[in-house]
Each structure stands twice: as C-alpha cells, then as structure tokens.
Design a protein that fits this description.
Blueprint (H helix, E strand, L loop, with lengths): L11 H12 L5 H9 L9 E2 L6 E2 L2 H11 L11 E2 H12 L13
Antiparallel strand pairs: 1-2, 1-3
Main location: cytoplasm
Keywords: Cytoplasm, Nucleus
Subcellular location: Cytoplasm; Nucleus
Length: 107
C-alpha cells in the first residue's frame, strides 16, 4: 500500500491561502485595471507623475520612478497629482443627498 504518509485533510494554512487567493483582487480584468489607474477612490494608484502621467501607490514608489525615469529633473513631491484627493472632492460636491429608509427622504 502506498501513500500512508500523505495527509488526508487540508491544513488551516492551506485553507486560509485558498480563501485569500479567491477573495483578494490580484489586478486582473477590468476591475484590476480600474484599481491600478486610480479611477475610484479606493484604487491603489494614489499619485500621478506630472511629467509622464504614470501612477504609483505611494510616495516611495513615485520617488523610485522619478529617479529612474527623470534623473535630470529634481524630485518635487508637492507637484505630484494626488488622485484620491481630486476624485473625492469633486464627487462629494456633486452627489445628491442619500435616501433614508426604503428610498424615502426624511424631513
């Protein structure tokens, strides 16, 4: 008989890894593209380079990009476009008041 040393049940670590792989956005498809481009406030792309319009999730990544792609220009963090800030401010001012319970507005 072979296979006596094989475990017959899944481990908790393996099950947790499968759940994580199934529920985490890995960046594929239209949802992943939207997430990378920072079109929604919850997207990964927070900063945009003013020179080439490439996006980055944080200041350190943008600094690495700037040193690699624009070595002759000085890195100025205040000139970076914050995609989360600009999207949220415009959305908050143009949205309608949210309805109350079952779609009716409370007065």
């Amino acid at each position: 008989m072979t296979g006596k040393a094989k475990p017959k049940k899944h481990t908790a670590k393996e099950i947790a890894a499968k759940i994580d792989a199934a529920t985490t956005n890995r960046g594929g498809g239209k949802a992943g593209q939207k997430d990378r481009l920072g079109q929604d406030k919850g997207g990964h792309a927070k900063l945009e380079c003013p020179h080439c319009k490439i996006t980055a999730p944080d200041m350190k990544s943008m600094q690495i990009h700037h040193e690699a792609r624009h070595p002759k220009l000085p890195f100025e963090p205040e000139k970076l476009n914050n995609l989360h800030c600009s999207t949220g401010a415009a959305e908050a001012t143009t949205s309608k008041p949210k309805p109350g319970i079952r779609g009716s507005l409370k007065k």
